Amino acid sequence: MELELSAYPKEKYEPCHEIREIDENILLMTLTDFENPDKIRALIEENAEKLERCRYWVIDVRKNRGGTDAAFLRLLPYLFPEGKNVLTVEEDWKMTFHCTERNYHLTVEQIQSELRQIRDEGTRKTLEDFMERWRKNKGKGFVRLFEEDFEAVIEGRRLPEKVVILTDTGCGSSGENFVEICKKSPKVTVIGRPTAGVNGYANLAVKEWDDFQFYFPTSRLDKMDKVKNLLDLAAHPDVYLPWTPGHLQEDADLKEALRFLKGGPAQ
């Protein structure tokens, strides 16, 4: 038996950062990555009136390729209840970084490249602090760059009242961190399927040779000693919707999100 195989060009990635109103009370925000904090900031500023008016949000990160956690920080006040919200780092998020000389130089080179493109002052400060921690520990092998207990205070907003986040296995890296943080808010319900579960080894460095790029992780979560598979690392939905062939005909995830926001039971 002969099996004829064909080669197809890789589909070009087209980033999507958009907000559209589904009706006067519900908006849909689609974020396919967190690569550029300035784009997320601009999206928020350009749609401020909608964001402050709509009672319900749906945030679609099903195909979010990740990027930097700093990109989604400006969204968090909307996603937590009005008033002071304190977040702390849990044991599951603790990690070590492999601080070799080469990893240091590759990481700094990457951060400096990002700093040349980013204008947001908060993001720049975060990246500069990260770079300084690498500098202080270069050549020391596996190191906890963040030994101190981390605590963040988020001043939440009244609106939106409810938020649904749509997830799938195409959501990875910083996209997964976004989902995990949002799950701590009582305003948020996650609907869909578990995320990719790729953060066990993260903070990628890249080595380039001509037209070839080799990416490799520089950090390792402590919980890797305990997990058995990627599902143990994934962010899991509050409402699990298995994928079916029907998803090819209609957006069943969005349909369920709208049913939930309008007061119907989650199915």
How would you summarize the topology of this molecule?
Blueprint: E1 17-21, E2 26-31, H1 37-46, H2 48-53, E3 56-60, H3 76-79, E4 83-88, E5 95-99, H4 101-115, H5 121-137, E6 141-143, E7 151-156, E8 162-167, H6 174-182, E9 188-192, E10 201-209, E11 212-221, E12 239-240, H7 252-261
Parallel strand pairs: 2-3, 3-8, 8-9, 9-12
Antiparallel strand pairs: 1-2, 4-7, 5-6, 5-11, 10-11
Helix pairs in contact: 4-5
Brief summary of the model shown:
This protein is α/β, with parallel strands linked by helices.
Give, in order, the helices and strands: EEHHEHEEHHEEEHEEEEH
Please give the alpha-carbon distance between the first and last residues. Answer: 45 Å
Please provide the count of β strands. Answer: 12
The shape, in one word, is: globular
Q: How many H/I helices? A: 7
Uncertain runs: none
Q: What fraction of residues sit in β-strands?
A: 25-35%
CATH topology: 2-enoyl-CoA Hydratase, Chain A, domain 1
**Structural class of the helix and strand makeup?**
alpha/beta
CATH class category: Alpha Beta
CATH superfamily membership: 2-enoyl-CoA Hydratase, Chain A, domain 1
Average pLDDT metric:
92
